[in-house]
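Pasting as-is:
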Amino acid sequence: MLAASRLHATKFLCLMMVCVSLFACKPAAEKSAVSTPKTFATDITGADFAQTLSLVDHTGKAVTLNDFKSKVVVLFFGYTHCPDVCPTTMSDLNVALKKMGHQSNRVQVLFVTLDPLRDTQEVLAKYVPSFNESFIGLRGDEQQTAETAKNFKIFYSQQADAGKSGYVIDHSAGLYAFDQLGKIRLYIGYGQKPDHIAHDLVTLLQD
């Protein structure tokens, strides 16, 4: 009787140890999954905007988003007289692509000007490739610019400025990333670290 009682107690103790072990492991696994996001940027897969774009590049060639299928596209709206946000973002994109190594050949950065009056084809041809020779500048007339900005939900507003430029433009500073099928996938907020941008672009290339 005593032996049976001890056997029962031993089985009960083993069962409790198994339960404690399973309970202890579960939070660790959940925590690991939460702490390792697929992308650092905001996933906007399936968004019903930003579907089309038809502008002229800094060489005078008409282009659309379809021209860049098979590549991951990063789209940024700005202007060449921008004092800080635009050059900082363009520099960060250049660093991100360098971190990607040979995979950067499958990424296309597009810079759309919100200031077509000053950002002529010649101006864009000097400014945009100065950050990275693969970067492409895009422009349209004022109406095309307004329509494109609206399509991509980009805010911009001209503001008077006492400096030499005469005016500055307040504008949305985030980036859009499209996958190799031309579908919008990510919104990359301003100030995202180059390491994180590189990680997210590689992730899109692997999809």
